[in-house]
Amino acid sequence: MRRLPAPPAARDAAAAASLRLAQAAARNLARLRRAPALHPDGLVCSAVLTVPGSPHRAWGVPLLDDPGTYEVTARWSRALGLPQALPDGFGLALRVEDAGGPGRPWDLLLTTSGGGRLLRHVPLPRRRPLAGPYGTLTAYRVGPRTCWLAAVPRDPHHAVRGGLPALRRHLLRTDVVLDLCVAARGQPWRPVGVLVLTPRLPWTGTSPGYDPYRHTAPGLRPSARLGPLRQAAYAGSRAGRHRAA
């Protein structure tokens, strides 16, 4: 017998229950650890994004079609905040200054993921933060297309293991270069820019508070699919930290 789809009221109730569950879980975890529920510890450093541009304006997005160089505030973090010796999902958050025009930054959140077409938007825990790509967990509207974005280490540094302290020591010794790539569903990655983190620039400081739904660039916007869930988790995390304080 063919199963009938759930009525809209049931779907709305299930969605609301999921949001409440995510908010409660984040609140309790933040209260216990007295820190953000997810990505509690981070390494903030500076970087430069260089975009060569598209001669035929292939993307329909000024940031990707026009040549430019942008200052970036990057934050590396471990998603669950597990002990450094254990695998964890590493996060890479980027604040690209003036990407949408003067005074209009663009925020991009990336997580360690697979590199193939089936696993490119699936989060994968790692012990080595620079051993593979970082991808978006949600699709992006890139001009007229639905795509995914990734930052792929140009020369994977398999020796960097042990979490954020090892990554910081590595950054102080050598450049880390990642290719910013875009791919439509079922298509290979296409490089659109180069992100360089250099030993002359790392610094530790306060995270700028990344929000990919608030800080967007013209023609480049994330899908709303994970937006409500992310906002619920952030709200719960803030409430848990306030209660712990």
UniProtKB/TrEMBL annotation:
<dbReference type="InterPro" id="IPR020835">
    <property type="entry name" value="Catalase_sf"/>
</dbReference>
<protein>
    <recommendedName>
        <fullName>Phosphodiesterase</fullName>
    </recommendedName>
</protein>
<dbReference type="GO" id="GO:0020037">
    <property type="term" value="F:heme binding"/>
</dbReference>
